[in-house]
């Protein structure tokens, strides 16, 4: 967004109008010991020189030819229509609709987004305004507390480590106990004091969990405990059973339709069963009609944030609407349609499994997954440093070193393959793996 600085005359006029003499007076409430005295900044530049300087800086960025990195942020094909629509000023400049009913266009886009997500997840209700999957999962955990009045959450191993940390932070603030357990201990750990069980599928290591079987275990032990499923890459819903068919109470996920840029921006998807609708954070847009007439209009049906209702009744303090990211997700899903999303999912599944099989044939490489996987899988490497260095030399963004999150897994990588990885990319990666032993 362009920035046009004010001249000195304009600054003085504004200061006079608000009743202060100088800019420093605006910060008079900040103690002097907290103020930075010297920022050691260079002199200002004319606009032409500044633009030239920024252009030169941008040339230092390295754009890889292809990527085998996933772990929560994925390279997918984004139809050109997505960027075209979200660049329109009515979407690009919109923010949270505080005077909601005036913003009928923004409300309609939220409504259509909610409808699209509910359709692909087959859940009853989807809200708007979640930041990302990590915070959406944390909000789901606190929802379980509000619904059941129980103060313990079980997290099944395999959830993204960053999601786990976010859940712990939210739960700490509400004095909710959290415990991370392996899946095979779920049956023994379930009691009437558990508010919810959190599981990611496909999990951080790409493995697809049997959600229906997990739901049966939970229902046999507790009638109140909620099953909450997280998902990093919802493109798999074009191939896997949606959460609405597997007894999931709350479903959360990262959004789709946005280009990775240092891991974002993104948005969080949160969908629930009807009976939990009034415990949702964020916003819910509904479609209504005139009392006397046939004209339709969009309204903010539910707002559970503390700014709109009594603080002690608020379920969440989530604020920003994530409107632009939401529109991107909506246009992405509409552009692909049901058959397009299925094609994306199938290519992710097949290409990843093709590379998995190829690597398993190379001496020294071991596939560590024991369950079916979707677009990601874990490999033990004979020489991980050489593999990653060779990838970069060949202009390939290398897979994730698992030691980044798990220090004891020094020789393991998490490889991601999507529809954007061509046959030639996969062949090149296999060749690099053969040489990096």
TrEMBL record:
Pfam families: GDC-P
Keywords assigned: Oxidoreductase
Gene3D superfamilies reported for this sequence: Aspartate Aminotransferase, domain 1, Type I PLP-dependent aspartate aminotransferase-like (Major domain)
GO molecular function: glycine dehydrogenase (decarboxylating) activity
First-level EC class: oxidoreductase
Annotated GO biological process: nucleoside metabolic process
Domain Glycine cleavage system P-protein N-terminal intervals: 2-430
Enzyme Commission designation: 1.4.4.2
Record-given protein name: Aminomethyl-transferring glycine dehydrogenase subunit GcvPA
């Amino acid at each position: 967004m362009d920035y046009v600085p004010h001249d000195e005359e304009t600054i003085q006029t504004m200061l006079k109008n608000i009743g202060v003499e100088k800019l420093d007076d605006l910060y008079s409430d900040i103690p002097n010991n907290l103020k930075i005295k010297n920022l050691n900044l260079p002199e200002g530049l004319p606009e032409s020189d500044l633009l030239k300087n920024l252009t030169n800086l941008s040339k230092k960025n390295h754009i890889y030819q292809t990527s085998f990195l996933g772990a929560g942020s994925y390279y997918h094909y984004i139809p050109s229509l997505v960027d075209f629509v979200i660049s329109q000023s009515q979407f690009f400049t919109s923010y949270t609709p505080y005077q909601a009913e005036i913003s009928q266009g923004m409300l309609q886009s939220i409504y259509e987004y909610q409808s699209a997500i509910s359709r692909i997840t087959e859940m009853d209700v989807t809200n708007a305004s979640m930041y990302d999957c990590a915070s959406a999962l944390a909000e789901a955990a606190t929802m379980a507390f509000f619904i059941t009045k129980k103060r313990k959450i079980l997290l099944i191993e395999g959830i993204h480590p960053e999601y786990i940390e976010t859940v712990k932070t939210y739960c700490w603030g509400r004095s909710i106990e959290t415990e991370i357990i392996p899946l095979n201990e779920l049956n023994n750990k379930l009691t009437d004091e558990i508010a919810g069980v959190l599981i990611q599928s496909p999990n951080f290591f790409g493995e697809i969990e049997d959600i229906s079987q997990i739901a049966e275990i939970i229902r046999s032990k507790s009638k109140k405990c909620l099953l909450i499923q997280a998902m990093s890459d919802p493109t798999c819903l074009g191939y896997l059973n949606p959460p609405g068919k597997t007894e999931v109470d709350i479903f959360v996920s990262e959004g789709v339709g946005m280009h990775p840029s240092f891991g974002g921006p993104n948005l969080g998807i949160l969908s629930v069963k009807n009976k939990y609708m009034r415990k949702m954070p964020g916003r819910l847009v509904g479609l209504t009609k005139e009392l006397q007439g046939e004209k339709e209009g969009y309204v903010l049906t539910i707002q559970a944030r503390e700014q709109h209702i009594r603080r002690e009744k608020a379920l969440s303090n989530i604020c920003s609407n994530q409107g632009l990211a939401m529109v991107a997700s909506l246009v992405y899903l509409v552009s692909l349609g049901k058959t397009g999303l299925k094609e994306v999912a199938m290519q992710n599944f097949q290409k990843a499994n093709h590379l998995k099989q190829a690597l398993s044939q190379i001496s020294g490489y071991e596939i560590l997954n024991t369950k079916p996987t979707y677009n990601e899988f874990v490999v033990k490497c004979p020489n991980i440093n050489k593999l990653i260095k060779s990838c970069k030399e060949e202009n390939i963004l290398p897979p994730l070193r698992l030691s980044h999150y798990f220090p004891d897994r020094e020789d393991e990588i998490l490889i991601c393959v999507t529809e954007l990885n061509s046959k030639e990319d996969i062949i090149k990666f296999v060749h690099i793996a053969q040489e990096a032993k």
